[in-house]
Amino acid sequence: VVIKYGGHAMSDASAALCFAQDMVLLQRLGVNPVVVHGGGPQIGNMLERLSIPSSFIDGLRVTDAATVEVAEMVLCGSINK
Fold first, then answer.
1. How far apart are CA 74 and CA 38, in angstroms?
2. Crossing angle for the helix pair 40-49 and 65-74, nearest 10 degrees?
3. Counting Cβ atoms within 10 Å, is residue 3 exposed (0-12), middle (13-18) or buried (19+)?
4. 52-55: which pairs have CB atoms within 8 A and are 24 or more residues apart?
5. Which long-range contacts (CB under 8 A, 24 or more apart) does 17-25 make?
């Protein structure tokens, strides 16, 4: 089972606790969850700080080369440390 742990949930301590409890429950039930993360709000904040425009189509970020570079910087430097 693959579960996305999104950027908005990451910034909410109560949601983080519930998420952790749910992961433990799944493991106890014999399910081995694979957690992938979002980070959209953090990426958006960094794009804004760097004055790089960001756009969305149907709720999905349009990702050009500059956005990919910023996403990698944020996800590898902040989210995954």
1. 11
2. 120
3. middle
4. none
5. none
Place of tokens 């760097």: 50
Give dist(CA 23, CA 35) in Å, integer. Answer: 9
At 23-75, the pLDDT tens digits run 999 999 999 999 987 788 889 999 999 999 998 899 888 889 999 999 999 88
- Strand, helix or coil for residue 68: helix
Q: Which amino acid is at 34?
A: V
Q: Which helix (H) or strand (E) holds 4?
A: strand 2-5
> C-alpha distances in angstroms, 74 versus 21, 24, 28, 41?
26, 27, 32, 10
Tokens representing 16?
A: 């983080």
What's the predicted TM-score (pTM) here? 0.60
Structure tokens at 10: 């990451």
